Amino acid sequence: MKYLISGADAVFTGARNGEVTDLRIADGRITELGTRLTPAPDETVIDASGCVVWPGLVNTHHHLAQSIMKGVPAGLNQNLGDWLASVPYRFWPKVTPETMYHAARLGFFELLRSGATTCADHHYLYHADTSPELEDAVWQAADELGIRLVLCRGSATEVGSHQGMQEHGIAPERLEQILDRLEATRSRYHQAGPDAMRKLVVAPTSLIHSSSPKGLKAQAAYAREFGLGMHSHLLEVDFDEVQAQKKYGMSAIDYAESCGWLGEDVWYAHLVHCDDHAIARLAATGTRIAHCPTSNCRLGSGVARVVEMREAGVALTLGVDGSASAESGSMLQELNLAWLLHRALHGPDATTLEEVLDWGSRNGAQLLGLHDVGELAVGKAADLVLYDVRQARLAGVHSPLMAPLMCGEPVKIRHSFVQGRVVVSGGQVLGLDEEELTARVRESVAQLLAS
Fold this sequence. Notes:
- 37% of the residues lie in helices and 20% in strands.
- It has 17 helices and 19 strands.
- The protein starts with a strand and ends with a helix.
């Protein structure tokens, strides 16, 4: 369909902020930006008065399976290592394709209602006897709701020092299984191109604790043979550094580099415990970060040195992480907290609203290889969000364009588009019934606890 989005209060277009009120969409692309554009006979007009228009937010690190593991009492006051055993790895073997499907729908629902249009899900529920239907459930949920999905295919080639796998006796995949299963997913789902709706990323779950050097090198070779991105967790806690020194006699960042796991095609979630050497290697190699401030606060892991990273030249992006350690699943919360947290540490000029929005949109899209996504410009994919700012709690804001980021949750989205297709309308996420979703999620939680 063709659309004219007309009469917005403001549109985030970078250098042209304040100059644009209207956007024209055709064939999934933005074809015109301007003011007082005249509707064409074949266009559907979207009244954007009282709204600000942003590029759709891009979440570069999630664990959708954890959407049904929020607030587990045993893990509420634990650090990462103990929490992994008490929460995600306790329930992982009990997740069925059906519960995974409902968890994914819930995670996508939370993202869409906060303004996200792209999700990179670090899906790690693979072991020696994993059913392929568990992964298929994630793809199915994304297809139904129309969100862009980058599936970061987790793996483990050994139990190693991974506390969650040790405690629950989870048998890792053989390396041959991992590569065969990667190929099956790539051939079935992966799309190339700067506006792909479905992408596959090679993503061993833990670089230090459950991956062998041989496995890491083989997966890196596979990823680069087929032009796939590479992702993992690294330096979320200082235990990563301790184990890297103990097992390999070198720093965690140097171990990553020795296995081929630094480069412009690589990004890591967290990177909280980076020293100056690690930041320098990230910058020199073009390796990037998915900054997850809510989860890092929630687990007491610390605060990533993203201001220093930015100054060194590391590209910054944002991720919500899993809802078992962040609870909200909101990209807007990540933007709001990232804006505030580093100002608290470094002063009021440490972060600006505009750059944080770039972290959560354009930078994330570039990292994922979605070069036609993440900004509002002629020729770009029509991934965009209309935030309704005509609400009492936002009425006093003097700068309405950035009101959603400044004021944070809750927000109301009037419309949201992915590739020119409406995925949120009138505040409702299309493709699901919220009451039905709530009932299915509650049933899924009960099944986890009963099994």
